[in-house]
Fold this sequence. Notes:
This protein is an alpha+beta fold. It has one domain (11-167). It contains 2 helices and 4 strands; from the N terminus they run ααββββ. It has helices at 11-61, 71-75, and strands at residues 94-100, 110-116, 136-137, 164-167. The radius of gyration is 25 Å and the shape is elongated. The model has no long low-confidence stretch (mean pLDDT 79).
Amino acid sequence: xxxxxxxxxxxxxxxxxxxxxxxxxxxxxxxxxxxxxxxxxxxxxxxxxxxxxxxxxxxxxxxxxxxxxxxxxxxxxxxxxxxxxxxxxxxxxxxxxxxxxxxxxxxxxxxxxxxxxxxxxxxxxxxxxxxxxxxxxxxxxxxxxxxxxxxxxxxxxxxxxxxxxxxxx
Length: 169
């Protein structure tokens, strides 16, 4: 008499395989999220540098003056559009201030631009300026200069943890 073997897997074997697949997929998803955060920060930094280049071109074409706001870069054909945030596709959590070294209401002879990054441990913070603001808003400008050392969307409060990547000319 031949011994007949059953074909297939037992319930325990199937559960073990499913558990292993679940653990592996959670590890992969966790590492993908970290990569996505870094990719969005790289995009924000690249966009800031693109805006900086457009500001330099505007400055050279407009009697050594910067615009009071970023919209002038689009209307002046220095950029096709103001970049959108890679996380929510809306407007950037940007701060831009046209600054006058003279008095309020004078033309813009400087600027301060920044964006909040998601990765607070990013090494790029070693190369930003961490300007504490306080510049005088120039003609056509609104609001006030921001604190580049802040954590709340390049906000107005000084903080020890820097999540604001900011640039000046």
